[in-house]
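New to this. Please check this fold:
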Amino acid sequence: MIPPLVSYSTFNRMGLTVRSITALLKTTDDFELHIIDNNSGDDTWDYIQSLSDGRIKSKTRFPINEGPIFAVNFNLAKRKSHQYFIALESDVYIYTPDWISRFMQVFETFPEVGLLGIPRAAPYPPYMPPVILREANGVSYLQLKNGKLGAEMDFIPGHCQCLRPELIDITGYWCEENGYGDAELSIRVNNYTPYRAGFATNITIDMLQFLPCGGCEGQSRCKLDKVNTTCFGIRDSRYKNESFAEKFRWKYLEYFNELQEEKRTVYCASIHDPASIGSHIYNKDWALENFNYYIANSN
């Protein structure tokens, strides 16, 4: 079996990136790691360049941040046939060293599972959308019951998601045309494919959103003055996912309207894969407008 491709995206907050990657590299399972720095304005890229591990297959720094969907699809386009794909964000600290094996146990036990994630963890408040417990042969997962369009948090959050290769063959990429990421992918999986989305139940993480400079493992590499400027302050000033979602919600709704009316298939193409655009519907104007929103506001 080909080791899964782990796509790791980071955007400022070097302190969390150092903490997260340190834990990730303690994973006892094999994987191929592809790291993207989405034009951080702190010392994140210097830290990434310092990393040396045979599992790291690529390190990419985008000169311009074009948004999280642009980044994750860049790595998804590198995936080999039959290779599982894991999207991981820099605020996830994984305590469970064999977490990939635990994902694979669920996929092997439940052939209907296409997308697996992990519930959001502290300091986020506990919340779970409607789910159904599935158990077999000592293995379990929580199946997303609905995945309703427009329902708040009725999806698998995007901080850590693992996709079955057969599902990717059907769904293609995260949708660049509406840019809604996790909120659109779970709906596509649950309602427009033979597969289901769900949560793994035995992988422990935390998702700290802030570290004091004195407690940061990367402080020796940080060149910021730490008084007027911190890596967290830079990130907060450039984080525009919420404003993007508000401004372009109409695309999200219209995309699923077209899908419901069978004006398009569930497969989403990507600008990183010209062949996919040539053989599937792709609203390039929508996608470029989404990328340009981040170019104008997140750099």
User: Anything to note?
Assistant: The two ends are 39 Å apart (CA to CA).
